[in-house]
Amino acid sequence: MNLQTIFESLRESSKELARLSPGQKNRALASVKEAIRTSIPSILSANDLDVSRAREKGIKESLIDRLSLNEARIEGILSGIDEIIAQTDPIGQVVSGWTNENGLAIKQVRVPIGVAAIIYESRPNVTVDAFAIAYKSGNAILLRGSSTALETNREIVAAIKKGLAALSDNGEGIPGAVELASSGKRDEVDEILNARGYIDVVLPRGGADLIKMVVEKASVPVIETGSGICHLFVDASADLDRAVLIAENAKLQRPGVCNAIEVLLVHSSVAKDFLPKLVEKFAGRAQFRCDQRALPIVKAAAEKASGYDGDKLSEKILAAGKDDFDTEFLDNILAIKVVDSVEEAVSHINSHNTKHSESILTTDVKNAAYFKTNIDAACVYVNASTRFTDGQVFGYGAELGISTQKFHVRGPMGLSALTTTKFIIEGEGQIR
């Protein structure tokens, strides 16, 4: 099936899908869930092939982690479908309503956008999440994953279509409402980005290069999801022992995800106490790229700590380069900078971040308030890890991505992200 045929099929399917009731859509999602569960062996087999090919290409392990599936991860994905089923269907919700002096009853109601396309890298869980959110919100969706996850995505989409086909006779399952662009060729991305009249919105989900390419090339509307140059600021009043644990979680739990921190800012008054604790806790598990003020402290601490023996010291402790505070490493690499105030921290963050997730660790109420008010980001944390920026954690069951733009939606995108509104005006013969 060529892309033009797919576009036309999605458009027609979106019209059918928009007519389904919440119960019909939920039953279709439940059927998809069971079809995926019965297809776990074939999905894992395909994923093994993708992972093997990725390793042969030399893709770093933090990114292979995003690609990899196992039974536990698939069960987590299926739990996400259950959470989406349990959520209130946004379609038909009245956003606002009033009656004019002339008697016109005006209501603003939520409706599906129509046909969405998502272009994403490596993560096969997005295939299920994006489909489930789109179907529940009444939208058809075109999935365009990366070539590294092609075999896995083929198996997952085949299972989704099987689940929908099982209910197609009664009209609840619409297999044509989801399609996979599976040629693996890059020119199909250009065709998707310029499918005006067929694709209503495109969502890029991946690294900075992918997002930039989509934004620059698309002639259809784009909801921009941001790469994650996320910061953690350890303020002068922070609980340093707790701060070390938060930094470890925010950087090392899953370094290849967008809500992991890439930059650590430390107030100068606690740098000599905090940075040695950090070095000891990390124990050589990350490379530190330090500014001039942090470097001697970190080096001295590493000479006494475990995990930095011999050549590891020079490999793990480096002076920061000119681009290190503007890089999404997606790896066990952390840039460190010492600052003299919350104002300096906020200024640095707003100059270098990608408007994703930022956190301050502090017991100073005024500094926390200043940080919350002045940071420009989708998610701003006080005394918590940035790793919580996630649709499932926020109660959405799954997410389309983290929007870092300011129009329409911002932050983790759930069901309402794929809706728009229309006004319904009812009268009794009024004229103007």
Short note summarizing the structure:
By secondary structure, the chain is an alpha/beta fold. The protein has 15 helices and 16 strands.
Please, could you describe this protein's structure?
41% of the residues lie in helices and 19% in strands. The chain has 432 residues and is α/β, with parallel strands linked by helices. The strands form 4 sheets. Strands 10-9-11-8-7-12-13 form a 7-stranded parallel sheet, with helices on both faces. Strands 5-4-3-6 form a 4-stranded parallel sheet, with helices on both faces. α2 runs antiparallel to α5, α2 crosses α7 and α11 crosses α12. The chain is globular, with a radius of gyration of 24 Å. The protein starts with a helix and ends in a 6-residue tail after the last strand.
Number of strands: 16
> What structural class do helix, strand and pairing data support?
alpha/beta
Treating each run of at least 4 consecutive H or I residues as one helix, how many helices? 15
- Based on CA atoms alone, the radius of gyration comes out at 24 Å
Give the proportion of residues in helices: 40-55%
Main sheet overview = 7 strands, parallel
Rounded to the nearest angstrom, the distance between the terminal CA atoms is 51 Å
Poorly predicted regions: none
What's the structural blueprint in terms of helices and strands?
Elements: H1 3-17, H2 22-38, H3 40-56, H4 61-67, H5 71-86, E1 94-99, E2 105-112, E3 115-120, H6 125-136, E4 140-144, H7 150-165, E5 178-180, H8 187-193, E6 201-205, H9 208-217, E7 230-234, H10 240-252, E8 261-267, H11 271-282, E9 287-290, H12 295-304, H13 312-316, E10 317-319, E11 333-339, H14 342-352, E12 357-361, H15 365-374, E13 379-382, E14 402-403, E15 411-412, E16 419-426
Parallel strand pairs: 3-4, 3-6, 4-5, 7-8, 7-12, 8-11, 9-10, 9-11, 12-13
Antiparallel strand pairs: 1-2, 2-16, 14-15
Helix pairs in contact: 2-5, 2-7, 3-7, 5-6, 10-11, 11-12
